[in-house]
Structure formats: structure tokens, C-alpha cells
Amino acid sequence: xxxxxxxxxxxxxxxxxxxxxxxxxxxxxxxxxxxxxxxxxxxxxxxxxxxxxxxxxxxxxxxxxxxxxxxxxxxxxxxxxxxxxxxxxxxxxxxxxxxxxxxxxxxxxxxxxxxxxxxxxxxxxxxxxxxxxxxxxxxxxxxxxxxxxxxxxxxxxxxxxxxx
Length: 164
Description:
- The protein has a domain at 8-86 and 135-157.
- 60% of the residues lie in helices and 0% in strands.
- It has helices spanning 13-27, 36-61, 66-85, 87-112, 138-149.
- The longest helix is centred in the first third of the chain and has 26 residues, at 36-61.
- The protein is globular, with a radius of gyration of 20 Å.
């Protein structure tokens, strides 16, 4: 895949590594407790979410999603800061994420033969020390800037020799 292909950052090794870390951390490492798993999730989230937004825009439009990625990185950092320092933002996050998960919980309940569940909010532990993870939001910005400053060569120029 070329660097300028739509959605190329979605399969970048750093992004795939952050996504794997996020999954392993949230489904296994958090069972051990401690402060580190929460920080790992926050960093992975700040890396992956902006790339998902930018990649989705690129795939949908066929145009570079840099501005969207940069905006999503800034918004993710702002949300992370607010939900860890301001109770109304934390409450809104708990309710909003609970609502987003509700259809999936409902489908799982139907598969089990249970009735449709009511809304459940998620539990967020506000922790101002999570602000140390905010530099993670710069990783997707750095990757996108690197990609933009090194455009791929056209396919016809890659190692092909012209007959004289």
C-alpha cells in the first residue's frame, strides 16, 4: 500500500499496535488492576480514534483526511482532559458511551433469549493524572505529517526502466 492511498494510516504498524494494545489491555491487563492499564487505554485511544476519523473520511471521499484527523486529535485530547477533571463532562461521557453500547447489549440479550435491556451508563473514574497521556494525541498528527511530507512516487516511476 502506498503512503497516499486513502486510509493508509489505518494499517500503519503504529496504529495497529495501538489497537492491539487497547484490546489486550481492556480485556486482559485491566483484570490485574493498578494505574498502568488505565493509562495504556487512554494513550491507545488518543492514537487510534483520530486515525479512524481521518481514515473514514478518506475512504468515503477519496480525499486526504488530514484536517479531520488533526481536528479529531485535538477533540480527543480535549474530551480526555474534560472527562478527567470536570464532573459534568464525566457524567455526559458515562451516559453517552452507555447509549452507544446499548444496541449491542440489546442484541446480545436477544441472542441469549433475554428481554431488551434498559440503558446502562458506563463507569468512569475521574483521574487528573490521566492528563499525562495527552501527548498520545500527537502521535497520529506526527504520522500524518510524515505521510504528507513524503508523498509516494507514481507507480510508473518505481523501479521501471524505459527502453531506449
